[in-house]
From TrEMBL:
It holds the Pfam family EPSP_synthase. Its EC number is 2.5.1.7. It comes from Subdoligranulum variabile DSM 15176. One of its GO terms (molecular function) is UDP-N-acetylglucosamine 1-carboxyvinyltransferase activity. Residues 7-409 form the Enolpyruvate transferase domain. It catalyses: phosphoenolpyruvate + UDP-N-acetyl-alpha-D-glucosamine = UDP-N-acetyl-3-O-(1-carboxyvinyl)-alpha-D-glucosamine + phosphate. This is UDP-N-acetylglucosamine 1-carboxyvinyltransferase. One of its GO terms (cellular component) is cytoplasm. One of its GO terms (biological process) is cell wall organization. InterPro entries: Enolpyruvate_Tfrase_dom, Enolpyruvate_Tfrase_sf, MurA_subfamily, RNA3'P_cycl/enolpyr_Trfase_a/b. Pathway: Cell wall biogenesis; peptidoglycan biosynthesis. It is found in: Cytoplasm. SUPFAM superfamilies: EPT/RTPC-like. Belongs to the EPSP synthase family. MurA subfamily.
Length: 433
């Protein structure tokens, strides 16, 4: 088991550039199964979820490898593809759900054990399944797995999502590209990552209109070829670096990610008293550590263009030392603030009540031994540790590697003091083989 040790009290200086967005790269990798030519995704981050996706592609019979910073796939013959997704890969990440549509379209059948990932509360796949059923798929629920079959090609449909789910919008986009006729998706998600998937599919030959709006129109049965594609930069990683500068103090330039991608978070930082100087493709974030941040914030995390749910724990870390109370409500996930226990161990007065986190502010943070409960909560605890006096030990940080290639090293490049220790595996956790 790993532990990240953070010595707080060091301001940050320098320039940092996020890699391609995790939340784009994962569905794009699944979408390459639909392509009749080779695909290359450029500047892809080295994340554990990306590694899992590559392993999943290989497990179902596709060819996918990393060449330096790029991910490359070769077209798979349908005779080599298998619709059975291994349980250990499905359980490792929520994004295994993106393989439902491509494998159903290519093989006629797909079986997916219920996907895993961070424990953020109920994250149903019913919208994915309802949309695919509307296109003609037969859905069979069996205990901890779902099986989909088609008898003949999927059919275009006019389907309204009951809520703007990013994942379901992406699943139905991929399925609609292979369906006969026209599909209209209403109530679709408008996030930049959805627009990025549309851009990728269109570059491969798909005919799609309406990205960035709640209504998408897809003309199906277009032959999809290969493409060399650069996914958009990771706006959540960019927000993480900006939050670190706000919490620790100093001056950091986040380059290569347009401020419009995380405008709501940058506006929040400005409201807290952080200097935010946006440019065309980057932003400079500065804060004098001797000056208190402003509290009194009431944040509501929801779908685009609202305050992003993945940035809610990062905002909480910034607000722990602010001059007055704040609160954050997450409309999307019921257990977003599992990091509150770690904040409290570091001396913060905060309370999670369902979807709401209440933060008293004014904390004198100190080092403590805490545990990363999930991806963004773990990153938030690391950010809080930068602002704390003394040494913090962040235990079991494996979740963080799902969204950041090496967050401690990235922050160290800006002047943070983080180190990673690898402890012995307890006897009860060892496996033979």
């Amino acid at each position: 088991m790993q532990t990240i040790t953070i010595t707080g009290g060091h301001t940050l200086q320098g320039t940092i550039r996020p890699a391609a967005a995790k939340n784009s790269v994962l569905p794009l990798l699944a979408a390459t199964l639909l392509c009749a030519g080779p695909c290359c995704l450029q500047n892809a981050p080295e994340l554990s979820d990306v590694d899992t996706s590559l392993a999943l592609l290989q497990a179902v019979g596709a060819k996918a490898v990393r060449h330096g910073p790029d991910l490359c796939t070769l077209p798979a013959d349908v005779r080599d593809l298998c619709g059975e997704i291994p349980p250990h890969l499905a359980g490792a990440m929520r994004s295994s759900v993106f393989y439902l549509a491509p494998l159903l379209c290519r093989t006629g059948m797909v079986r997916l054990p219920l996907p895993g990932g961070c424990r953020l509360g109920p994250r149903p796949v019913d919208i994915h399944l309802a949309g695919l059923a509307a296109m003609g798929a037969k859905v069979e629920l069996e205990g901890e797995a779902v099986t989909l079959r088609r008898f003949g090609p999927l059919q275009g449909t006019d389907f309204t999502l009951r809520l703007p789910s990013v994942g379901a919008t992406m699943t139905l986009l991929m399925a609609a590209c292979c369906a006969m006729g026209t599909t209209v998706l209403r109530g679709a998600a408008c996030e930049p990552e959805v627009c990025d998937l549309v851009g990728f599919l269109r570059a491969c030959g798909a005919q799609i209109t309406g990205e960035g709006t709640p209504v998408l129109v897809i003309q199906g049965r277009r032959a999809l070829g290969g493409v060399r594609y650069t996914p958009l930069p990771d706006r959540i990683a960019a927000a993480t670096y900006a939050a670190a500068a706000a919490a620790a103090g100093g001056q950091v330039t986040v380059a290569g990610c347009a401020p419009r991608y995380y405008h709501a978070f940058l506006t929040f930082l400005q409201d807290c008293g952080v200097e935010v100087r946006p440019g065309e493709s980057g932003v400079e974030v500065a804060r004098d550590p001797a000056r208190k941040l402003h509290g009194g914030q009431h944040l509501y995390a929801n779908g685009w263009p609202a305050f992003a749910t993945d940035t809610a724990p990062l905002a909480a870390a910034v607000l722990l030392t602010a001059d007055s109370p704040s609160e954050i409500y997450d409309h999307l996930f019921a257990n977003r603030f599992a990091c509150a226990a770690g904040f409290a161990a570091m001396g913060a007065c905060c309370r999670a009540e369902g979807r709401r986190l209440w933060i008293a502010g004014g904390a004198d943070l100190h080092g403590a031994r805490v545990q990363a409960p999930d991806l963004r909560g773990g990153a938030a605890l690391l950010i809080a540790a930068l602002a704390a006096q003394g040494v913090t030990e962040l235990c079991d940080p494996g979740h963080i590697r799902r969204g950041y290639a090496d967050l401690p090293a990235e922050l160290n490049s800006l002047g943070a003091h983080c180190s990673v220790q690898r402890g012995k595996i307890p006897e009860r956790e060892r496996t033979t083989g």
